[in-house]
Amino acid sequence: MRRVSVVSTAAAVMALAWFGHLQAQGQVGQIQVGGSPVVPDAEVNSRPIPRLPDGTIDITGPWVGGGSNGNIERDGGLKPGEMPLLPWAKELMSKRQERDEPYTACLPMSVPRVNPYPWKFALSYTSRGLSHIYVLHETGDAGAHRVVYMDGRPHPADPIPTWWGHSTGKFEKDTLVIDTVGYNDKFWFDSRGTPHTEQLHTVERWTRINYGRITNDFLLDDPGAFSRPVNLKFTGRLLRPDLKTGGGDLMEFICLESNEYGSAAGFVPGQGTNIK
Amino acid sequence: MKRGLVVLVAVATTGLIAPLLSESQELGRRLGGANGPTAAEATPNKPAPRLPDGKIDLSGVWTDGGGQSLDQILKPAELDQILRPETKKLMQSRNDGQDPYNYCLPGGPLRITGGFAWRFIQHPTTNATHIFMLQEGNAHTYRQIFMDGRKHPEDPSPTWYGHSIGRWDGDTLVIDTIGLNTKFWLDGSGIQHTEQLHMVERWTRTNYTTLRREVTFEDPGAFTRPFTATYTAKLGEPGSEIMEYICIENNQYGLAQGLADPSAPK
Hints:
The complex is a heterodimer of chains A (about 280) and B (about 270). By secondary structure, chain A is α+β, with helices and mostly antiparallel strands.
């Protein structure tokens, strides 16, 4: 079987995001990359908001964006300097370098980070109803999935800190509300290195506002690193279902294979994650 | 047995923490090896549950069902006859240290069920368009099975998990896979398939706690003829969950020892 060179959806989206980033810095003019893989602004209302057979709003996606990436402050709608970081956190952040970010070594990017690759909500239905919602990323999560428990269980009293934390969720009308504690402190909120502690508590309110867009009203509450809770807002854009490459589905991406940025460059996983 | 937090150390990596053990649980009842969930109470007469649309409910935390090597499933004489000479020679020359699986690279669609908990996700509830398989261990990643009737692409770009299409044949889920790359070992013994590999799996939930998986392998590049191997997955007790497991974090076996990426061309 001959190998086919695949121009992945991911690469196109990443190129767009990167050029957008450069454009924002005034370094590059308009770049034509052959069309966007997301539903354009003009078409966000071209179809009604879909619902699943049981009436639940369909938040599946796949989506691109909906969280932080290069700069959580800017990505989340705040002005520069508006994030109320405590002094120690500001200092740590100033010392961090993009190349040391755990994400570049294929470690999980966690919440609310979304790199410019598609992701989707996968609702796991059982004979007893909706039990879990999984967030599947094409990449950026060390391979796989974030789990949101939808069965009404509470958080454990003393959760073991993990990259993705312990998430419980419920639908409030058409909004999916996800409450998460139990994060470890090893991931960065953005490639600038905005830090947090194990005290982090997040609340996400996901609302599909129309066919092509989903908003994430995000509450960041971490008294260990921030002087007060912070409200951020992100918007995810729907991947076009008619894409030739990938067909509007998630594609395979194995970060650890040929990771030129990370392990191939001699990066030792675990370095740069130490908050001290 | 003392109550307490037990840290189970996997062969390849650390990072998996066991839940609190109660007096009634014993390590010997764990499924899939030391890292698996406790087995659900055997209930041979309890049937498989169904979703509202009548399809079999595949949910639950399962273990095994594809992790064993083919030499443990097939009789020696049969396997010997199935392997082409060069396939057999390569298999015999390999050792664990060369297995990409141990370097946190994906184990492929057969081994996604090995040694640790795994799950099916049927999405959405009625006439699911996608079924995903999630694994706790190894690459902690997902396998995507398209259930919407689409065909395989004419010339798929080879990937670690391939292109999988599925359909229901009565109460049996049939998954057809092509487009697999050759960067992973088909099984733990080092049997190497080629890009011609075509796998057909038939999954049947024979009762509440048991999943039978019949896999037919066809690969004229590696095998003298198609053959079928049958595996069994068992259900974890209610309340079992897939736990977080980040293979490359603190991978003592592989990266931490400075071992190179085994998938790199030699």
